[in-house]
Amino acid sequence: MRPLPTNLAAKLASGAATLCRCWRLTREDGVTLGFTDHDRDLTIAAQLFEATDGFEASTVEREAGMATQGGEVHGLLSSARIRAEDIEAGLYDGARLEVFLVDWEAPALDFRLDLATLGEIRRLDDRFIAETRDAFAAWDAPRGRLYTSACSARFGDEACGLDSALPAYTDTLTVTVVSAQRSLVGTMTQARAAGFFSLGHAQVLTGAGAGFGSAIEAHDGAGVVLALAPPVPLNAGDQLRLTAGCDKRFATCRDRFSNTVNFRGFPFIPAPEAIFTYAAPGEGRHKGRPLVR
Predict the structure, then answer these.
(1) Is 107 domain-assigned?
(2) Are residues 110 and 222 located together in one domain of the fold?
(3) Are 109 and 35 members of one domain?
(4) Would you place residue 77 in the very low, low, confident or very high pLDDT band (cuts 50, 70, 90)?
(5) Rounded to whole angstroms, how far apart are CA atoms 152 and 144?
(6) In this structure, are 115 and 226 located in the same domain?
(7) pLDDT of residue 281
(8) 1, 57, 183, 290: least CB-packed within 10 angstroms?
C-alpha cells in the first residue's frame, strides 16, 4: 500500500473534509489544463485548476496482473478550456491525464492517485466522453504493419504522400438549405462526383458555428451529411471547407487519386475464405494452379 504524505494522512485522521481531487491534462503539443472538483479555483505550482462540475472521472477498479484497465472522463464542450474544434482536430488524442489528491487549505501536488492517457473521444450532445488507458495499454498497441487489403495510411498523411489541402482535394460549400441538423445542401465552386467528399472532413468557416469541424458521413454531389451535429444550427449562407475522403480501397486510390505508388494495402492477397477453397481446372479464379508456390 502506498503511504500518504504526512499532511494528507493527518487531515484524514482528523476527519476534516478539506480534500479534493485535481486533474492535470497535458496535451502532446505541451498545452496543460487543470481541473478540480473543489467549489473554487485552485492555483498549485503556477498551474490553474479550474473548479467545474462538467469535468469528472469515473471510478476505476484496480486488479492484480498486467491486464489493461481504464475508465472514462466526462467534460463540457461549452467550456472555453475544452473546445469542440480542438477535440475534432485531434489535439487531445493521447493526452496525459494525472489525478491528484489535494488538501485545498494547503494545496500541493504531493499525492498522485492515477496516471493515464486519453484514448477514444466521442461526443454526446454538449459533452465529450474520453476513454482513459493505463500504462499497460501500450503493450496492446499493434507493432509493425498489418497485412490487409485496405490501405493503412490516412488521406493526406506522410504515408499517403498527397497534400489534402490542395485545391484538387478541397472545395467550399455555401449552404442554401439545411434539411436536417446534419444534412446540408448547397453550391460548390467545382462540380464533384457523388461520394468525392464521403469520409472526408468539413470545417465551418462562417456563421455562428464557425470553427466547428466534423467528419463527412455522405456526399451526394449537391450536399453533405455530417457525422456530428453542429453545436449551433447552421443557416443558409454559411460556408464550409470540404476535404476529400478516402475509403482506403485500391480502386479508389487508383481511379480517384492516381496514387497507387503510395497505396499502403495489399489488395491482391487472398481473402480469408480462400483457405476453404481448392483449385479446380476450368473454375476460372485459380486456373488449376496453387495459390502459393
Answers:
(1) yes
(2) no
(3) yes
(4) low
(5) 11
(6) no
(7) 64
(8) 1
Per-residue pLDDT, 173: 93
Whether residue 50 lies inside any domain: the answer is yes
Distance between CA 5 and CA 223 in Å, rounded? Answer: 60
Alpha carbon separation from 11 to 2, 5, 6, 101, 110 (Å, rounded)? 17, 10, 9, 12, 14
In a domain, 22, yes or no: yes
Contact status, residue 97 vs residue 117, Cβ threshold 8 Å: yes
Strand-pair category, 96-103 with 70-76: unpaired
Q: What percent of the chain has pLDDT over 90?
A: 26
Counting the structural domains of the chain, the total is 2
Domain of residue 238 covers 167-243
pLDDT of residue 202: 93
Q: Which of 13-22, 211-220, 281-290 has the lowest mean pLDDT?
A: 281-290
Report the CATH number at residue 88: 2.30.110
Evaluate whether 76 touches 126 at the Cβ level (below 8 Å): yes
Question: In a 3-state reduction of DSSP, which class is residue 191?
Answer: coil
Q: Which residue has the higher pLDDT, 72 or 43?
A: 43
Please, what's the b/e burial string for 36-68 (b: 16 or more CB within 10 A of its CB; e: otherwise)?
A: bbbeeebebeeeebbbbebbebeeeeeeeeeee
Classify residue 256: in a domain, yes or no.
Answer: no
